[in-house]
Amino acid sequence: MAAPAISLPAAYSSKTESYVDNKRKEDIRQANIVAARTVADAVRTSLGPKGMDKMISTASGEVIITNDGATILNKMEVLQPAAKMFVELSKSQDAAAGDGTTTVVVIAGALLKQCLSLLSAGIHPTVISDSLHKAAVKAVDILTAMAVPVELSDRESLVKSASTSLNSKVVSQYSTLLAPLAVDAVLSVVDPLKPDLVDLRDIKIVKKLGGTVDDTELIKGLVFDKKVSHAAGGPTRIENAKIAVIQFQISPPKTDIEQSIVVSDYSQMDRILKEERNYILGMIKKIKATGCNVLLIQKSILRDAVTDLSLHYLAKAKILVVKDVERDEIEFITKTLNCLPIANIEHFRVEKLGYADLVEESSLGEGKIVKITGIKDMGRTTTVLVRGSNQLVIDEAERSLHDALCVVRCLVNKRFLIAGGGAPEIELSRQLGAWAKVLHGMEGYCIRSVAEALEVIPYTLAENAGLNPIAIVTELRNRHAQGEINAGINVRKGQITNILEENVVQPLLVSTSAISLATECVRMILKIDDIVTVR
């Protein structure tokens, strides 16, 4: 007699217990990785000194030509959430180091490619994530051991580092001018009391159309990209200037609330005009009494900062006027002039003024600028006047100069230099590969994949320079195995040389930041197994 069939509840069924649908999780993870890698591939061709430039056309019709990774990704309209993380990754690198914005995305893309093959081999995402973290920590240690210390007094090394950053830009032919300019600008704003901190907001970049990038100059003082308000024939040049930065209007006051004043006869109108004249004249007398002869007037949104009548009286008082100074420039101006902004005519005092040897208006290209030089007790700020033949060149020169300033800032924060030209990446790949052989199990397998992923930088540098990437990377591995840790790709000569001797150097902070941020972003993408849309 057959044994009766016993039907167990679903809860006790081992089959139901162990069955989990992993297909959707794998699909989501794969979709995220593919989307993020597409973003990385988009900027990969612009890596290195021989990298290609991108022409970006915005919806408003604006055209930008650049090969700066952060700018390209910032302007791209990315919709997929994981791909957006790569755009944020590039912004993070820009904030942390200022340079290496393309490198960080290319490394992250290569790591994701390796992760895809590790996932298909059945390795759990958490194991891969932990291995990536260990590899990143080890990589930072290896890079630090390779680094060469540098002193801020060694101006030549700082210039070399800034030149390396500029060599991969559209304006690379002007690197001999822009690199020393960037170094001098940063060193002039370093505070001896806080030698490790540099605030790039203390360096103002003023763009002026006309001339070429060769005409770019560093000005110890202030520059305004506007002309002097001399509608009433006021002065355009003042020596031994006493400068006031004012945040009030030299114009007749308005009523506080919306209301209309009805004037019924001419005598009332004359009285209003007479009161207006007396009001403005009273203000200008108070200004003149302090000896002030230059006025910088903040832009006003409530009413006109100055009227034709007030300009007429100011011209008679021989006071030079620059109006429509932006609100966000006030802090920089007052810091430079070592003066205080004046918010009310009642607070207009001599001790709030700034002093300079010369304030003058000069013609530049098609327009005019106002220069303030010879400032007494000048704050730790500086101004760079960028010139160019068209707006595209000026904008790219400004972006390139910003990267060069960031590179010098990195060296002030962390005073170590490292070789460029793919040398640190191939050395990392070699040492991580050797370390992976010592480790056991899945961890060693994952770290070997990280080592392979890092070879993408020298491979891409060679590919973008039109060299044979496989032959170059193989030769590079061989040279590093023989102990030449500074051997890198010299794209100008098309061969492998000691890259430190070729003066191709970069700050340690750029490389360590790129590795740390790339692995952090990849680990986050790996851990995502579902996308929930909330409407």
UniProtKB/TrEMBL annotation:
GO cellular component, one term: cytoplasm
Compartments, as annotated in UniProt: Cytoplasm
Keywords, in A-Z order: ATP-binding, Chaperone, Cytoplasm, Nucleotide-binding
Top-level taxonomic group: Eukaryota
Record keyword ATP-binding present: yes
Pfam families, A to Z: Cpn60_TCP1 (PF00118)
GO molecular-function terms, A-Z: ATP binding
Matching InterPro entries: Chap_CCT_delta, Chaperone_TCP-1, Chaperonin_TCP-1_CS, Cpn60/GroEL/TCP-1, GroEL-like_apical_dom_sf, GROEL-like_equatorial_sf, TCP-1-like_intermed_sf, TCP-1_chaperonin
Family of this protein: Belongs to the TCP-1 chaperonin family.
Role noted for this protein: Molecular chaperone; assists the folding of proteins upon ATP hydrolysis. Known to play a role, in vitro, in the folding of actin and tubulin.
Protein name: T-complex protein 1 subunit delta
Lineage: Eukaryota, Viridiplantae, Streptophyta, Embryophyta, Tracheophyta
